[in-house]
Structures are given as C-alpha cells and as structure tokens.
C-alpha cells in the first residue's frame, strides 16, 4: 500500500534540515515544503500528534510551518470545532473517501487529495 509519505518532497533530504538552528536553514526547509504535493496530510499529522502541546514544546518545520505557527493553526482549528472529535478525524485522514465526506459534512470544500480519492473510488465502483 502506498501512503502519502512516499510522495513527500522531504523524503530524499537529510532529516536535520527540518530541525534548523538558524533562519537560513529554516528557509531551506520551508522552500522544500512549499513545493511538496502532500503538505496538507503532513500538517494534519503534525497537528494530530502535537495536539494541545505548548508552543515552546513544538520543534522543527512540518508542512512549511514552525512550531509556533502550527500551534496557532491548531488553536484556530480547535476553535472552529475541527478537533471536537480527534479520534474520528484520525480515522479519516485527507486523501480518503471518508475524509471527502467529512469535508462535505462540515460545509468545507474538499481538498485536492480528497477529491482525487473520491474520483478514484467512483471510477472503481
């Protein structure tokens, strides 16, 4: 089974890039993330794993965001109700037909990964 990790732009780079010690290194990591086709599921995973962790306890660059930026994104999503049922969210990651339906239930425009999954699922049916 192929997962989104195999399509990640970071997979062929030194993992240390995502834990920068200076601004130039952070800029290199962000540039790689900016062109990544799986940035959305990467951010979802980071937010899910980090959960309600404090800003200062979040390390590295994920999906092009620093720890503080991810904490802000988490707070915004939590306030909008997206983290009301994290267990259900974990079972339907973006890029699946279930997540496509979740987007629709929440009145959101489905992301590109979910639209592709829905199209592929309909074609296979």
TrEMBL record:
Span of domain 4Fe-4S Wbl-type: 9-72
Domain of life: Bacteria
Protein name per its UniProtKB record: WhiB family transcriptional regulator
Record-stated family: Belongs to the WhiB family.
GO terms for biological process, alphabetical: cell redox homeostasis; negative regulation of DNA-templated transcription
Location within or outside the cell: Cytoplasm
GO molecular function: 4 iron, 4 sulfur cluster binding; DNA binding; metal ion binding; protein-disulfide reductase [NAD(P)H] activity
Record carries keyword Ligase: no
Main localization of the protein described in the UniProt heading: cytoplasm
GO cellular component: cytoplasm
Reported cofactor(s): [4Fe-4S] cluster
Keywords: 4Fe-4S, Disulfide bond, DNA-binding, Iron, Iron-sulfur, Metal-binding, Transcription, Transcription regulation
Signal peptide (residue range): none
């Amino acid at each position: 089974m192929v997962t989104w990790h195999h399509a990640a732009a970071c997979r062929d780079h030194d993992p240390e890039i995502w834990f920068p010690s200076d601004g130039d290194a952070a800029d290199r990591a962000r540039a790689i993330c900016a062109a990544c086709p799986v940035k959305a599921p990467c951010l979802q995973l980071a937010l899910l794993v980090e959960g309600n962790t404090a800003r200062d306890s979040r390390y590295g660059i994920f999906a092009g965001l620093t720890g503080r930026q991810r904490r802000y994104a988490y707070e915004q999503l939590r306030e909008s109700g997206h983290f009301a049922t994290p267990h259900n969210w974990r079972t339907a990651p973006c890029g699946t037909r279930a997540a496509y339906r979740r987007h629709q239930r929440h009145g959101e425009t489905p992301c590109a990964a979910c639209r592709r999954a829905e199209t592929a699922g309909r074609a296979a049916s």
